[in-house]
């Protein structure tokens, strides 16, 4: 019997051919998966949310792409999207009472090479989508003086929500699930503040608000009354109050001695006069922050009858 020996060069060729075939069969030329699903979605009345995937073949040897999505442990077939080539969508109806979904994509495909077709699969890591029941669309304006009333539009607001300026709470008014308003708090002027809506469901960023400098004058500049006696104070600002009015957040260090109403300059007006009544005898001040040099002080004394 005569046996032909394989030359070293031929051995190398045979080995390379086998290696190439093995590479094709093990999926080295695979499919690139790109998750196009946002990690947070605004709540909608239908409770239907769209998951999107781009499955891009790396070479022409990839055939028969079959993408699926596994949501909360259940597998669903995805459909081709009209948004573009190699994009697939699936619309999922969220069960009642849920605001979070865990999912991953699983793609089956074939690789053809060397006269053979081999089945393969690839998948993404597990991701989570959060449904935002409260979200902010916009601030009415992005600058104003201390005391100005500003509106916020959005969805999912509650009476427990409070607007904050870099952590400083502002007087907040719940108007509807789609609207809040707040009075710019007595913070330092001529700088920007990060505004958030804080509530039981977490903190939602609103945007940046610039607090402009403002001045206010008070007449008289000090008060001296007896217990039960009344005297007026007039607050005047240089420009007419904006829509919703201008809140002057007056505080005192002798709260048992001072009886006075909330001070809000009405929309379109430049001044307001309020009545201050003497309570328990005491000596102290009224304070108005955020105006003029930072704080306006009005000395006040209440004496016994």
What is the C-level CATH assignment of the largest domain? Mainly Beta
Percentage of residues in helical conformation? under 10%
Mean pLDDT: 86
> What fraction of residues sit in β-strands?
over 45%
**CATH architecture assignment of the largest domain:** Sandwich
In the CATH scheme, what's the topology name of the largest domain?
A: Immunoglobulin-like
- Total strands: 29
What structural class do you assign from the helix and strand content?
mainly beta
* Main beta-sheet strand count, sense and barrel state: 6 strands, mixed
Describe this structure in words.
The protein contains one helix and 29 strands. The chain is mainly beta. The protein folds into three domains: 8-132, Immunoglobulin-like, CATH 2.60.40.10; 135-212, Immunoglobulin-like (Sandwich); 217-303, Immunoglobulin-like. The N and C termini lie far apart (136 Å). Residues 1-28 have low confidence and may be disordered.
């Amino acid at each position: 019997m005569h046996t032909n020996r394989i030359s070293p060069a031929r051995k190398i060729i045979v080995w390379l051919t086998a290696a190439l075939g093995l590479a094709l069969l093990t999926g080295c030329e695979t499919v690139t998966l790109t998750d196009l699903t946002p990690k947070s979605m605004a709540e909608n009345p239908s409770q239907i949310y769209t998951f999107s995937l781009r499955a891009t073949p790396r070479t022409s040897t990839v055939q028969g792409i079959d993408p699926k999505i596994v949501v909360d442990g259940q597998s669903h077939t995805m459909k081709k999207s009209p948004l573009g080539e190699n994009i697939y969508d699936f619309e999922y109806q969220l069960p009642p009472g849920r605001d979070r979904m865990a999912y991953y994509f699983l793609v089956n495909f074939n690789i053809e090479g060397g006269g053979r077709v081999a089945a393969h699969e690839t998948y993404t890591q597990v991701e989570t989508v959060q449904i935002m029941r409260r979200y902010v669309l916009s601030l009415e304006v992005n600058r104003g003086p201390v005391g100005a009333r500003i509106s916020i539009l959005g969805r999912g607001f509650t009476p427990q929500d409070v607007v904050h300026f870099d952590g400083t709470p502002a007087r907040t008014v719940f108007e509807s699930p789609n609207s809040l308003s707040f009075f710019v708090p007595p913070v330092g002027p001529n700088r920007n503040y990060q505004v958030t809506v804080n509530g039981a469901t977490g903190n939602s960023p609103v945007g940046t608000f610039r607090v402009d400098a403002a001045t206010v004058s008070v007449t008289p500049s000090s008060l001296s009354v007896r217990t039960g006696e009344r005297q007026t104070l007039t607050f005047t600002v240089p420009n007419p109050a904006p829509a919703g009015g201008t809140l002057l957040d007056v505080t005192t260090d002798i709260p048992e001695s001072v009886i006075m109403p909330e001070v809000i300059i009405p929309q379109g007006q430049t001044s307001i006069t309020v009545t201050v009544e003497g309570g328990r005898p005491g000596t102290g001040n009224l304070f108005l922050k955020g105006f003029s040099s930072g704080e306006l002080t009005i000395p006040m004394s209440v004496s016994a009858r």
